[in-house]
Design brief:
324 residues; 10 helices; globular
Length: 324
């Protein structure tokens, strides 16, 4: 696989962490919450966990079952996994009060915040091995496609994973427009694949010339990097990275947050923070399963870290209205 990459300039605020002091999984002395039913259980009698789409149902359930059981055992209330067919399903479920928390992408958080008029709250974001809290969106083609750069994609077909994906739709379209490229006319054909995994499969099966997906951008490229969709597909035996070429990638983008409904009790939110902050050290296998790879854990985050994504969603909506 070619290691050549191209960048289009994005505001550095995309990768910036909030300036306030934050607790991190690497802080000394963090203890995993002691088991026992909490006072907030009268308001939250079961913990409903939303799981994003973009991966087949069996694999999602398998990755999250240990996490679900641990949540249940720790807090003494039932924990349920609610699987969404696509990213929009989690946005709708948060707005309808059907789920209590979910780990979602930054663009999904922006959509949920807008759709609920500020009714959701970010708690934590993932950290990379180098302590950063960002990842990259990558455009991948088949290694035998003859396409080696973004210019080679002019007049070719492109798969977006999901309209609510930051790395797979919102950020690339923003960057392309800033560079003077209209994504609606530059490519001969575009379409939504139904998720990140499905987008890569569509390229491998020659349904599209290229697709966007996400990766940590760190670690061994032959293993799909240290985490992300490519890494998960390699681990599941669905992908050999020699069959793909990365022809373009975004600058770093802040990870999506563990998000809760704002109306939930403050004590519940604090328990969720502590549970996840201590998870990598206390239960490393469960942590790696839900994060699709490694990292140093999590850090606290505030809404301000995602304001630029909200502005991008508004700009994308305005651009769509202009087209119509």
């Amino acid at each position: 696989m070619s290691r050549r990459r191209q960048f289009l300039t994005l505001p550095m605020a995309l990768a910036a962490a909030p300036a306030l002091a934050q607790r991190r999984s690497t802080d000394p002395g963090l203890a995993f919450p002691a088991p026992g039913r909490r006072a907030w259980a009268t308001q939250v009698p079961q913990i409903r966990i939303g799981i994003l789409g973009g991966e087949n149902e069996g694999d999602r359930l398998g990755r999250y079952e240990g996490y679900r059981r641990l949540m249940e055992e720790t807090f003494g209330v039932p924990a349920r996994l609610l699987l969404a067919a696509d990213f929009a399903g989690v946005v709708q479920a948060l707005g309808a009060g059907q789920i209590d928390l979910a780990s979602i992408g930054p663009a999904v958080y922006a959509a949920a915040w807008l759709d609920t008029n500020g009714g959701v709250e970010p708690l934590l974001v993932a950290e990379q091995e180098d302590g950063s809290a960002s990842y990259v969106g990558v455009m991948v083609t088949r290694a035998d496609s003859g396409i080696t750069d973004l210019a080679g994609m002019r007049g070719r077909s492109l798969a977006w994973p999901d309209p609510n994906s930051a790395s797979g739709y919102l950020i690339p379209r923003f960057a392309l427009r800033k560079a003077g490229i209209d994504p609606n006319t530059y490519f001969a054909r575009t379409g939504f694949a139904g998720g990140h995994e499905q987008a890569v499969i569509a390229v491998l099966q020659r349904q599209y010339d290229a697709a966007f997906t996400w990766a940590s951008g760190q670690g061994d490229a032959a293993a799909g990097f240290s985490r992300g969709n490519l890494h998960a597909m390699v681990e599941k035996g669905m992908l050999n990275m020699r069959d793909l070429r990365i022809v373009w990638q975004t600058e770093p983008v802040i990870y999506g947050p563990l998000t809760v409904r704002k109306a939930l009790p403050a004590a519940f939110k604090e328990d969720m923070r502590l549970f996840h902050l201590a998870l990598p050290a206390a239960h490393p296998d469960i942590y790696r399963a839900i994060e699709r790879g490694g990292g140093t854990g999590y850090r606290e985050v505030t809404h301000e870290g995602f304001q630029l994504l909200i502005d991008m969603r508004r700009e994308e909506a305005a651009e769509r209205r202009r087209r119509n």
